[in-house]
Structures are given as structure tokens and as C-alpha cells.
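thread from #wetlab-drylab

HS: before we spend reagent money on co-crystallization trials with iron/sulfur cluster, can we at least see a predicted complex? here's what I'd submit
DV: go for it
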Amino acid sequence: MSLTREIKDFALDLGYHDAGVTTADPFPWYAEELQSRYSGYDYYIESPFKPIAGTDPRSLMPEARSLISVVYDYSREGFPPEFTGKIGRLYQARCHNQSSSRTNGARRQLFVDYLEKRGMKVILGPDINVPERLAAARAGVATYGRNNFAFSKDPGSFIALTAFTVNAELEYDSPTIEAPCPDGCRICIDACPTGALDAFRLEPKRCIAYNTFMTQDNFRGPYTTSHIPTEIREKMGSWIHGCDLCQEACPRNAPRLKALASFPASSFLQRLAQQFDLRKVLLLTDEYFETVLRPVMYNYIRHKRYFQRNAAIALGNSGDRSHVPYLAQALEDCDPLVRGYAAWGLGQLGGQDARTALEKARSVETDKKALQEIESAVAV
Ligand code: SF4
Ligand code: SF4
């Protein structure tokens, strides 16, 4: 059996859905595309992940010869209804940049250990950010969709990709160059509430997912802030971490989505989901943050105030005035960011109780931005 076949079999044995190999040649088109859309991707281009350098793996590892792209299917277990429409499935599945002390991170580490034992030098993210979707397509294990996601047979776009850069010459697979979306299909583009999608292009700062977790002060230096534009807030619905709408609408995902409805969620997810309540996210305690939110949403949001802000938006979008007392309580929260977004949520829900809470807060608020939000909410 060839070394390449042995490597792929090991990946499959670890639980990956598929594995392919391509050269470590650069992806010049991707570097040009990122640079040409600098204002949309500045937070990423200037990040420590160095995505431009990652388009040429040899710039970070001169002896790089191959990229091994593995596909993880994160839709083999179900997802609890309590999280649907609130937390993206990718995050519920806990397969995105997980540490090696948890299952999905340990799987990645086991694969690295295996390659190193076979005498290879290996690097992967965050040390090198190879464009994962392009690497997967060139390695023959994924196709593109107009919604900007990579697709694999059976799981559709419910996959997580990882590219391992190695110094060994391996047998290269044929690329999948086609984008098998039906002619004229633009269901995903129409399903996006914020207009973030164009065919094969995403405007990240309009994407709900970006707005739920990248909008943190100084998260990516001066390129990110905690501010979410009003017109985006109104379209965020109940999402507090990620967004699945364009994937749910896609006919290429329909078979797996149908099957998912009968797959049970893991006991772990079910236990967390039973405790999940947007009101508790709004009035977040340290214990709830650590025991209910962080086990699933561990990778982006570092401070609980951002979950509270997102919950204020979600409750404000709910149209349910039974949430008013909770938002009114948040309006007295010690964190000015949360107070401002609680005011926005109250303005959205409206009614006498919301107005009373806002006017009371207006008379005592000392933070300039929170006061602006209160003034705007009173004017609604
Ligand atoms: S994830 Fe949501 S907001 Fe982002 S492009 Fe898809 S539908 Fe639009
Ligand atoms: S909704 Fe249609 S255009 Fe969009 S990714 Fe799916 S098949 Fe392609």
C-alpha cells in the first residue's frame, strides 16, 4: 500500500469523512482576491493568521511539498431544537479550532502525531492559514457552492476542512473544478437576510455570523469594534453565534437536513440545550457563561458582554413583550455596551413598560454611547 493511501486510511479511521492530497503550490488567485477586497477583509488580512502568506505555503515552510486536506462531517449527529436559529451548527458540533484537550482538537493532533511519526514535518493553522476550501477542491474532496461554502457528497456543506502542510512528496489527487450548483439557482443569495452574498462572493461585514462574534472591541486590533449597525441588528433574528440560513435553504443540503431531523443530538448537547434560555444569556452570570455557553461557543467570544449584547438583539427582534422586564433589568447592568443594546431591544419591542424603563434610564445614564442608544430607542 502506498504511503498516500496509508495516510488517507488513517484519516478515515480517525473519523474524517474524506481525505485528499494536492501540491503545496501557491494559490495566487486567492491572494489577489483578498487584497482586492481589503476593506471587507482587513480584520483577517492583518490578523496573526497571515492569510496572504498562507496562499503560498512555501513562504512559511520552504520544504513544503504537499497539502493533505481532510473533511470532517459534523452532521452525523442531530442538533437540539433549543439551539436552532440561535447557534450555528458548526459551533454546536465543536469542530472549529478546538483545543487538543477536546475530541475534535485531539483528532487533529492525532493526525499530526501520525504524520510526524512517519517522518514528516507538518504545519497547520494557526501557524499557516492555507485557504482550506481551495486546498480541498484542488485535492479533489470538495466542490464550491454559490453560497461560498465548500460541499462534500452526502454531508453537503455541513463539513469542516483542515489542510495539513507537509514536506513529503505524495500522490496528488485530481482537482474538483466544477461548481455543481443548478443553473440559475440563487436560493442562498435570496435567503440571506442581510444581502451578504453574491455568487461565490461574501461581504463578511454584512454577514450575521461575522456580526455575532467578530464585532468585539480590539478583537482584531483596530479592525474590529463592538458596534453592530442598526440595519444588521434588525436582520439578525435570534442568532447569537453564527448563522445557518444560506446553508438551510440550499437544495444541495436538503438530503442531509432531512436525515438530520431523525438523528438524535448527543447527550452533551441535549443537556446544555435544556438549560439554554436567551434571557439567561442576557443577564449572564459567570457560572452560566462557563458551564452553558463556553463549552459550545469557545472559539471567538472571550467576554460575556458580547453574548449579552447578542441576546439583547435577539430578544428585541422576538416581538415578545414578555421579555421587557429582562431587558429593563439589563438596562441597569454595569456594562455600558449591554445597557446600550438592551435599550435598542426595548425600542424594538415597544409598549408602555419599555418606554418607562427607557425614560428612567435616560435620566441616570452616564455613558455617552449607551445614552445615544437610549435616546434613539425613545425616539422609535
Ligand atoms: S451565514 Fe447568514 S448572514 Fe451570512 S451569508 Fe449566510 S445567510 Fe447571509
Ligand atoms: S442555494 Fe443554489 S446557488 Fe446556493 S449554494 Fe445551494 S445550489 Fe448553489
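DV: Residues 208-242+277-379 form one domain.
HS: ok that's useful, forwarding to the group
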